[in-house]
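Handout for the seminar on molecular recognition.
Each group receives one record of this type.
Step one: identify the two inputs.
Step two: read the structure output and locate the region that could contact adenosine-5'-triphosphate.
Step three: write two sentences on what you found, then compare them with the reference statements printed after the record.
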Amino acid sequence: MKILIVDDDVVTLNMLKEFLESHDFTVFLAESADQAVVQVRNQRLSLVLSDIKMEDSDGLSLLSELKKKDPNIVMILMTGFGSMQGAIEAIQKGAFDYISKPFDLKKMLTLVQKAARHVESLKRAATKEVGPPPAIETPRTLIGRSPQIVEVYKTVARATLSSSTVLISGESGTGKELVARAIHSNSNRKHKKFVAVNCGALTESLLESELFGYIKGAFTGAQNDKKGLFEDANGGTLFLDEIGDITPGLQVKLLRVLQEGEVKPVGSNEVMKVDVRIVAATHRNLEQWVKDNKFREDLFYRLKVIEIDIPPLRERTDDIPELADSFLKKYSAKLGKSIDAISPEALEVLAQYKWPGNVRELEHQIERAVALTSSSVLGAEDFDLHSSDGVGRASAAESKTNDFESGQEGADHLVGQSGDSKKSLEDLEREHILKVLKQADYNKSKASEILGIDRATLYRKAQKYGIALKGE
Ligand SMILES: Nc1ncnc2c1ncn2[C@@H]1O[C@H](COP(=O)(O)OP(=O)(O)OP(=O)(O)O)[C@@H](O)[C@H]1O
Ligand SMILES: [Mg+2]
C-alpha cells in the first residue's frame, strides 16, 4: 500500500518513512502542502499522513484541497495538541482520524493500517456493482477447523449412523445444541421432528407431564388428553438439554423409557411404544455428579453410549478467526452494514481472551462491535472484553510488547523493526541520530548530510535529546 507522509520536519519524515517501510508500506514524502498535492496527483495516492502545523502550510487546508479533488482520499492528521476541538475540526473536514503528538509508534501503525484497509474497502466498493443485500444465513452447520473441533465432527458423523443415545458435554455456549441438531439433521431421522426440552427450566411434575403427556383427569386442570414430547418426537430425535438437572424421581422414569422404549402418560395405565432417539446435553461434570450420588450411575451409562465433549473455545483458538468472520457476515448483513474484515490486531486480542461464555459470547461480541462501529474494519478497540476470568485487551497487548522488549533490549537494531512499536517517535529519533552519528564517526557534517538536515538542526536536536556531540 502506498502512503504519503507530509511534514516540514525532515527528520520526522525520514524516521516515519523507515518505520512504515519496515511494515510493508511504499512511502512518498512531501515537506509542504504544495509538494503533497503534486505527489498525490503524480503517484495517484489515496492514503496520506500529514502534520497539521507546518511552517508555511497547514494540514487542515491540505485536507480540504485533497478532498475536493478526491472525496475518497483517506487522511490521518498528526497534531501537536490533542484537543477535542482539533479532533472535531479534523473529523468534520473529513479526516479519517487524527493522532496527537507525541505518539506511540505502535498506535500510529495500527491507525495507518486501519486507514489502509479503509482505502482498500473503498476501492472494492467502487468497483462492486450494487446488488441486493446478501441473504442472511444462519449457520446450520458448525464452524471451525481446529483439530479439537474436527474430533467433534467425526463423532457427530459416527452418531448419525445409528440411533444410539448421545451425551454431549461442554461449557455453556460451546455449541451443544448445535451439535444435537447436526446429529439429527444428518441422520436418517431428519424428516421427522427434532424436539428440544430444557430439563432445568421446569419443575419435576411439569417436566414429567411434558415428556410423557397425560390423560384427561390425571390431575386438577387436566381437561383433555395431552400428547407428551416423546410421542411428539416419535421417529425423530428428542433433545434433553441440561439433563443433569432432572430429579431422582424423573431419572428413574427416564431410565425405564430408555430400557423399554415405551412411555406411560401421567394418569394412564397403558404404555405406548415410541421410537425416539435421545440426545442429552449438560454443562456439568456428570461423572462427578455420579460419584457424589447426585445422578444415577445406570442412567449415566445409558445416556453416554456415544459421548461428545466439546472443548471450550479458549482451547481451540484456531477456530476464532473463522467463527468471527462468519458472525461478522451474519451481523453486517442483518444490520445493513458493510463491514468486511476484522483487523489482525483485533484477532490477536480475540485469541488472547479466555471466552468464559465460549462461542455464544464471541457471537455477541461481534454483533455488538458491528452495531457500534463506524469503520469498515473491526479493530481491537471495537471490542469490550473484560469479564473476570477473561484476559482483558490491555493486558493481552501489554504482555506481547513486553516480550518484544525483553528480547531486543540493548540490541543495536534498525529503526522500524516491530520491537520499536512501543517507543515514542522521540525515542526513535534520538536512537536514529545516535546511530547515524556513530556511523559517521561523529563527523557532524557527514551526520547531518545522512540525516538530511543542516548542522544547526543537528545541534538543536542533539541538545533536545541530551546527545553530546564529540569534540565540543
Ligand atoms: N462451532 C460453531 N459454529 C457456529 N456457531 C456456533 C458454533 N458453536 C456454537 N455456535 C453458536 O453459539 C451459540 C451457542 O450455541 P449453543 O446454544 O449450541 O450452545 P450450548 O452449548 O447449548 O450453550 P448452553 O449450555 O448455554 O445452552 C449459538 O448461537 C450457536 O449457533
Ligand atoms: Mg444449550
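Reference statements: Residues 129-139, 388-420 have pLDDT under 50 and may be disordered. Residues 1-129 form a domain with the Rossmann fold fold (CATH 3.40.50.2300).
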